[in-house]
Amino acid sequence: MLPQIPSEPVLHRAEWIVPVLSNPVQNGAVLVKEGRILAVGAFSRLKADLPAGTRIADHGRAAIMPALVNAHTHLELYAFKGAIDLPRKGFADWINEFFLLRAEIGPEAVAEAASLGRKEMHETGTALYGDITNGALACSPEPAGLPERVTFLELLGFNCGWVGAAMPAGIEVNNGGKYSTVAHSAYSVSPAVIAGAKEISRLRMLPFSIHTAEHTEEMEFLQSGTGFCRELLERLGRWEPEWKPPRTSPVRYLDSLNVLDDLTILVHAVHFDDFDRAIAARRKCTICFCPRSNRYVNVGRPDIEKALACGIPACLGTDSTASNTDLNLFAEAGFVLDQYPGIRPEAVVSMITAAPARALGRDEDFGALNAGLKSDLLVVSLDSPLKESTLSEALVRSGEKGAWKWVRAQAKS
Ligand SMILES: [Zn+2]
């Protein structure tokens, strides 16, 4: 069933309109037609010049904001939801448990669970998500309706000499741009495959993603070539004896491989120092923070404030339900408000809307309220009359409580 999109124009009025990329509008409205936004502004101005046949929908004491964008998840792992007790003692403890469970989950369960994950995202306000797949979901057709997917085919292979050797069985390198070819991390993928995967994505002008500086085991491995990551590679038969540790941080290592640019998303960034942030800022990389996943796996606390202060574009992702309790971005944003009181709520709202839409290369459709973008809007209830200064926090808090609805009813897949 396809989404029902009214063909006549509709003027959606609310006490507040939150376009994200421009200032909120009190007593504002959004004019939409056939799934796209025609205009955003003061209700009185838009009402005075309506196209013939326009219906007015007044949402009262509420705010209209763009639907949410999840920059990083792994729907392939949705079958793990609730199966791993969280929090863990650390990365080694988490991944050992993960491998034990993964052996029990077959391909049919993966596909079935992924559609449930998609449903959960829709029910928590997400219209677009960046999805990591190790192959199982790379070629599956995109279901109609929301949320839409930006697919990252993630390669693994520390002992692979080139991209072709790291490709999952039955999947072509030459995919015509249906998915980005990306690398899992600096400790699980060879330098040749990291650089080659980035080159393929760069030539197609697609976003690239890599887990970076997530845990201390990764830092130790790149510094010395020893520790849990080394043991893990040996255990999996993936160790490459010719590899020499770069004796530097993951960011400096990735920079030496020429993979940092404005299409690269660095996921996690828990163990960044000031120099790493300076490099990420200079290369115009986006950082995708997954702070609840970091808390549950017990790998440390990312310094989101410092990244924002450096001017690094930052967004939020839920990561997978193997390391998080749900795919609810409002909950992720609420966690940031609770744990990072120095971050302005306006920045947090941007981290779940405009910033990830840009990082995923879909800012002409999602992440803001501007003429021409898709009209996938959320109406968020407001408890009481609000000043502009408290609006962004109120959006996240109402979102966490589930006090919101889609403007346009979407088909559930
Ligand atoms: Zn991840």
Describe the structure.
This protein has 15 helices and 15 strands. It folds into 2 domains: 96 residues, Roll (Urease, subunit C, domain 1); 292 residues, TIM Barrel (Alpha-Beta Barrel). The C terminus is likely disordered. The protein is of the alpha/beta class and 413 residues long. α12 crosses α15 and α13 crosses α15. Helix content is 32%, strand content 20%. The strands form 3 sheets. Strands 1, 2, 3, 4, 5, 14 and 15 form a 7-stranded mixed β-sheet that branches. A 4-stranded parallel β-sheet has the order 6-7-8-9. Bound molecules: zinc ion. The site of zinc ion (ZN) has 6 residues, from loops.
How are the elements arranged and paired?
Blueprint lengths: L9 E8 L7 E9 L2 E7 H5 L7 E4 L3 E5 L1 E6 L17 H12 L4 H17 L2 E8 L14 E8 L7 H4 L13 E4 L7 H13 L4 E5 L3 H9 L3 H8 L14 H7 L7 E5 L5 H9 L3 E4 L1 H7 L6 H6 L4 E3 L12 H11 L5 H7 L2 H6 L17 E5 L9 H11 L2 E3 L7
Parallel strand pairs: 1-4, 1-5, 6-7, 7-8, 8-9, 10-11, 11-12, 12-13
Antiparallel strand pairs: 1-2, 2-3, 5-14, 14-15
Helix pairs in contact: 12-15, 13-15
This protein binds zinc ion.
